[in-house]
Protein: Osmotically inducible lipoprotein OsmB
Organism: Ralstonia flaminis
Amino acid sequence: MVRVLTIFLAAATVLTATGCADMTARQRNTAIGAGVGGLAGAALIGGPGATLGGAALGGLVGNVSTR
């Protein structure tokens, strides 16, 4: 079971990375910020509301921090 999950996550990561190849710096930073914010919200507080809130805030920070 763990092996199947690992293979699935690796494939998802590769497919996601290829989709980001032609993004601008602002789009890339927004996506990274949303991912990190969502992960932080889920880890620190838990629940779907915290995950969505963290993703929204992280995406905003990633968007604004781009020069």
The two ends are 44 Å apart (CA to CA). The mean pLDDT is 86. Residues 23-67 form one domain.
